[in-house]
Hints:
It holds the Pfam family PRAI. This protein is α/β, with parallel strands linked by helices. It is built from seven helices and ten strands. The strands form two sheets. It has an eight-stranded parallel barrel with strand order 1-2-3-4-5-6-7-8, surrounded by four helices. The longest helix is centred in the last third of the chain and has 17 residues, at 188-204.
Amino acid sequence: MQVKICGITTLQAGEAAVSAGADFIGFVFAESKRRVSVEQARSIAEKLPYGVKKVGVFVNEQRETIEKVAEEVGLDFVQLHGDESPEFVKSLKVPVIKAFQITSTADLKKLAFYQCDYFLLDSPAGKYRGGNGEVFDWSLTRELPALNGRLILAGGLHADNVREAIEEVTPAAVDVSSGVETAGMKDEKKIYTFIQEAKSKGEEG
């Protein structure tokens, strides 16, 4: 089971995630309390091991901006949380994780129109797109077509529910942000516990 720790804002948090076994590190460039500048993200990214995938989160951003930031920071993927069209996603020169907010089976039907590297299923938007700490109805994913190991599950995950989530949805990866925070800051102990729970469940499966 792969794990993505999103909303990294400090080198300390990034290093804690990597040492705990994170496979993906996420930087938020959209409106968010976890937003980082290109300079911040680059200074963290360049100190992390090569094998850890670096992801940049964008919402309804211009293509030129996305590709410029991806190049400057050294992103392996861009994660799109807005209303980006299938044509827009296909036009990008960098690998894409497309996020979908799931409220019903109708939302799952949108996936069929997109060509991307990963499909990320998230909870309905709160104040910001993503990172709201709410789960969606995982049983809806029983209606999903086969995604051949390209499904990332997000939305309200934490150490106490991630094993159940993996069992219910069988994703390729799980994504967490607020679920590994204390008072709005990344908590190294929670990061470690979450990753241990997720990977132990993945090994059982």
